[in-house]
Batch of 4 targets.
Target 1
Amino acid sequence: MSKKLNDEEVKSLKGQGYILQNDKEHFVCRVITVDGTLTPDKGKKIFQIADKYGEGHVNFTTRLTVEIPGIKYEDIDKVKKELKEVGLYAGGTGPRVRPVVSCKGTVCNFGLLDTQELNRRIHERFYLGWYNVTLPHKFKIGVGGCPNNCIKPNLNDLGIMGQRKPKVDKDLCSGCKKCGVESACRVKAAKVVDGEIQIDFDKCNNCGLCIDKCHFDAIELDKEGVKIFIGGKWGKATRVGTDLNKIFTQDEALDIIEKAILYYRENGITTERFGDMVDRIGSDEVQKALIGDEILDRKEEILSGDKHTKRGYSC
């Protein structure tokens, strides 16, 4: 590195998505991929930059961003310019809403919603729209297409999971000896008892696989939408997210995200993770605030000021 950078300069670059490597000489550029996809021109540009300014290869993070290692400080402005040529940018660091991660529910046979489209909506509204909102710590959002839980939405600060809840029309059930519904249920929630199909909703995870499996249409769609988890995290101290125990529409889920971010900014302690705040305050109290709308009335007040900007934040 031709220029000796002070701690504030290194911190500033990290906030822009350029992270100092262990050798203290080069930077990793963290490139944001919206909904985990790249068009050919964007992919080509990333590899060109890696070959021209980096180590000639890239790495993919668990949140589907792309990291280009080996960039010199004096080349950072050139990298920014070339990324901008194809609509790309670095980021994904700091005490703010992080890049949204989603599974491939858009194309997966088990997908119950267009996860990538919902990812884009969340990215536009909260990653870009709230980028300058400083939070107590990072805030990760995950979108899963079904209860298969591939991207672990229940281990994100806020997780969304596709849901299709079935219901039984007993008048249409013929009590088949070989029941297609019972065979389709992977969690053994559906079972024929005394010649009638029954669903144990304490076991049912609303995957929707049973809904079209009855030859006599005894299983219908009751409600379709998403489940929401709050306060999940993995790492050294794992916390499984608290289930809000309701099926929401996608628009309702977006509003819950907004209320969660506002609540976190107002009530979280600097450097405290969202899940730790939920445990400290109490999940019932937090859920009550997120289901209600009172906090939205104080949105401007909560977002004003420099709360959480003086910190010992490090990751």
Target 2
Amino acid sequence: MNGVSSGVMISLGAYFLVMIGIGIYAYFKQANDTEGYMLGGRNLSPAVTALSAGASDMSGWLLLGLPGAMYADGVVSAWIAIGLTLGAFLNYIIVAPRLRVYTEVADNAITLPDYFANRFEDKSHLLRVISAIVIILFFTVYTAASLVGGGKLFESSLNLSYGTGLWVTAGVVVVYTLFGGFLAVSMTDFVQGVIMLFAMVIVPIVALTDLGGVGATTNAIRAIDPSMLDITSGMTALGIISLLAWGLGYFGQPHIIVRFMAIRSVKDVPTARNIGMSWMIISLIGACVTGIAGRAYVQKTAMTLDDPETIFLVFTQFLFHPLVSGFLLAAILAAIMSTISSQLLVVSSSLTKDVYKLFFDKEAPEARQVLVGRISVIVVAVVAIMLASNPDSSVLNLVSNAWAGFGAAFGPLVIFSLTWRGMNRNGAVAGMVVGALTVILWVYGPFEMNGVPLNSWLYAIVPGFILSTIAIFAVSTMTGGPRPSVSAKYEEMELNLNK
């Protein structure tokens, strides 16, 4: 093994040991019950909540997908970052405080399907089952997307096979998630968020310095293609709406909003918001600059770059000492692993609470539910590895489809369940089904607009979100509104929110 590979492996090995160590620590610290394993006992600090939400949100697309889009298309891709920033901010304002209070008011709901069922007093279990199906379906795809990033990292940077990268990435995540549950996931997310922030600051700075500064980099891009510096170049109004619409997805992402359920107090939400938004803005700017600087660097060095999503890897290999390169590669793994672990835990929690306990063992003791949750982590990870077996999969495309699915199915449902007392169970079911089916048909159906696939013409989350909202209002209104007891829970939430 050469010096470069040795240095990188030392850094990555240390990183893996730290993550596993945190998982073991969390195993002994948390309570061995479902609230402890799946929600950390609702005792997360604002800083851990914020960085855990951010790290689990960004995944490998922050260091691979977004820089790759900026490299290929120029600053027009920054519309995604703008939309995400607005969406995340509104998520902290609208959803975070209300969800923290309401999930306790709604019979101490631990999972999102739990909350939906309790919020609307759904004795038929229809809401719980449909939401569990949506979570299992879209999160398995989402987890596979994250694993694709891990496979690409090992293949392009460590000269290991793509398949080896999949199994190593999934293996380490499974170990600490399996043992430490939500507490381990949140604590590792915090560490991973710090690593990601450092990487998204240091890489673009060093890249710009190597290119001679901002002015020289800008001139180099102009020489390649001046339109790359025009944020409206080639964009239609629908194109801009499609990119901004990524922000709508935040309201319906279970792995993100579950952090709001776990924060120790609603009074801590503003602090978490300030930390989380600062982290996010710095990271997104760094990712965008990395992609643009990468285009100038590849031109300057006359190298060949087959996959734009590997531009961050190029910088780590050519501009840094091997030990630092290993640390920066760990940042990519941090982004990937933080998302995978959160997704695995959400899916396993849903499989446990909303499938196993509901249909197979209604009286299952807490310890058995935790065991089923751990087994589910392994099963979902293996399925995701199988789905991620194609190394040509695009991280950004896979993520965008799953993101749209959750945003349309759950986004309007979450918002209106927290802000409109007139919503009822029938409206919730209609909104969820309409949102999910719209995205599936929009992305995978054989439909076109002027010869262009619908999802290329307009991002699927837009029609999905709109039609879901209409379904919620129409069906809730036509079926007579909520029961009096549901309205009473809503009033209790509002009182507790204003204390």
Target 3
Amino acid sequence: MPRRPVAVFAIAPWAFDGVFPADLLTRLRELADIDPATTFTSLDGQPEALAEADILLSGWGCPRIDAGVLAAAPRLRAVVHAAGTVKALVDPVVFERGVIVSSAAEANAVPVADYTMAMLVLGAKQAFSRAKRYAAAVEGTPRDWLSGEGTGLHDCTVGVIGASRIGRLVLRRLRSYDVRVLLYDPYVTDAEASDLGVQQVSMDELCRRSDLVTVHAPALPETRHILDGRRLDLLPDGAVVVNTARGSLIDTEALTRACASGRISAVLDVTDPEPLPPGHPLFTLPNVMITPHLAGAQGRELRRLGEFAVAEVSRLLSGAPLLGRVEPEHLAYIA
């Protein structure tokens, strides 16, 4: 009788139930032997379960998968990551061993793109600064019913930095709005930009022309502070910067100065450092909205990651191509 494949979980307890609710565990049991009571976030003592594992179902809290893990898991065929990026999770030795790696980054990109669009709409309305002014109105004086002149997303120019997985979803969503879209991505050709329905421009031109800028590039040495002081100064007065990618893509000190002047606004789901130290001026500026890295899958959205992972396991075991497969040559360039 053929041996059934064994799948082992490496995911933090706080995320497990959301990512793998009962019905998804039932579907997994039809594909492989699993033990939902055994999940680990540390390799101390090299868990016995790894010795039989064919598939590692990883998620937030999974330890780095390196030579030590491979030594403890001699049968390992695949790592199926039920979360976003695997950049910091997977050591290159995993690929050298021939282990297949898949990520649910495609599924995690959906809520990030949705969050980005919400922030572009609200940012263009100056909703955050106007709400703070409204709340701070002195009792007995007229509330801040500003006319909103010069606000709103309609007829704006939106600059998108990076045609990444999330960036492309944002570009697709922007088609529903009456906006002009500029793109900076050195890896996208003019023909590809045309297919995406955007105009490919230089980074400086994007900054000069954009009413709103949204950042979707990976964190690489060459993208560090891609929005530095000089480029922030190129932005038109009243521009809004939205960052749901990585904090290091923006020079925090330069952004603080630009926002403190009141010339531009920012919506930041990521910062550099992350989190910002208590009392940082960005927290108190009325034209800056900071959220705690929540754009990705949260709460009910976690299920989408588990659905993707279970479907990947099914594809893996049936010999079908994996939709989230990560190739080793891409590891250095993903977010």
Target 4
Amino acid sequence: MAIGVWISLFAYFAIMIGIGVYAMRKASATAEDYMLGGRGLSPKVAALSAGASDMSGWLLLGLPGALFVTGLADAWIGIGLFVGAFINWVIVAPRLREQTVHYGNALTIPAFLANRFPTKALPLRTVSAIVIVVFFAVYTASGLVAGGKLFESAFSGIFNFGGLSDYGVGIVITLGVVLAYTVVGGFLAVSMTDFVQGCIMMLALVLMPAVVLFGEGGGGFGQASETLNSVDPTLLSWTEGLTLVGWLSAVAWGLGYFGQPHIIVRFMAIRTVHEVSVARNIGMSWMAISLIGAISLGVFGRAYAIRNGMDVADPETIFIILADLLFHPLITGFLYAALLAAVMSTISSQLLVASSSLTEDFYRLFLRKEASDKECVNIGRACVVAVGLVAALIASDPNSQVLALVSNAWAGFGAAFGPLIILGLTWSRTNGAGALAGLIVGAVTVMAWIALGWNGSFMGGPGVYEIIPGFIAAFIAIVVVTLATSDAGEYQHIER
């Protein structure tokens, strides 16, 4: 492996760890500082942090890999995500920023739900924290799988540490660097590194498709389209071969945004409600550019591979293969860093949210109610490490698919929290009984749907993405149970 690649990677690792050290003093002051950065994120940092923590390794591996195989039909996933993200910024962001302060200055989503629905505070806080920790273990594992695939594909045969495969070494290095800056720097370090990582990811997703199309061996749009049409005309069709169920399953990814704790927690940390609109404009612009780049990479990467006789065994590694093939080692190292940025930005956010729930919603709630801020910060750091190790164990199977792991966790969060967050913020009549019913019904429906295999095949036809039945069932459960019950002492008024 060329020395230029290592220079770029080591520079990236050093910057990430340096940001963690820089943020350490601020992060260690109080629990609010460690878990929410003191609610002082600027619009640009909040926007790119939300985007980078959202667009994990699936943006550079999973989504291009899916489009590499099926063509533009899977681009509906990106469209659904863009629409969902925009609605999330408009409906959820300003209300959540305001109401988490109004209801007891909640530092976590479970704490906000408990404060919003005090008659069911304990079960809501407990169940939501369990859902967060369980699904984040799976979600974090998807990022580690992406890191493992990078090292397995790019550095094959280089590492030989204690019998660990290249894939295993990739998991260890990825997790190790993330833990280094997350443990010491907390939310502020995670958000600042997300900003840098978001910039790197966007640049990579502009550079890579441009070189694939117009560099040597690319041939431009015309030749790329001609190549794809000669192999399979449906590759450039948005609708051909796409069933209604398949289309709904693709665009339904957008429903997941309303319930992703690692994304919506950024809304809680923006400096003021008035800066939400600025952050939204920055975040949506970043997302549009990044999604277009990922879609172009998958589709036109397939054309490049066909034209140049490339054998791509794992479509999810097309970004890695092209980075190594088309660029100078220094640029290749930068592109590898972009992939690691996508992976690490999400892993760090998820680890921090999971550890915050373990600290605030388990440790402080059940074990040490009188725990000091300093003690909670230290417990939070220990929980970051613990959740990371569990995720590494889940990710240890090298045959794991990034997009599959992400889709399961995304659906779990979207169905469990999405309807509850929307109704809890906008429908003042929502009560604790309804909230608890929706939380449980959403999570259970998703897990049952996956267990029964109905996301792969449903009633003899194509599978239905589990977020659809989960989201609908949770929404209905909240409304029906709320209308059928009355919680004495429940907050009935929400300040806008």
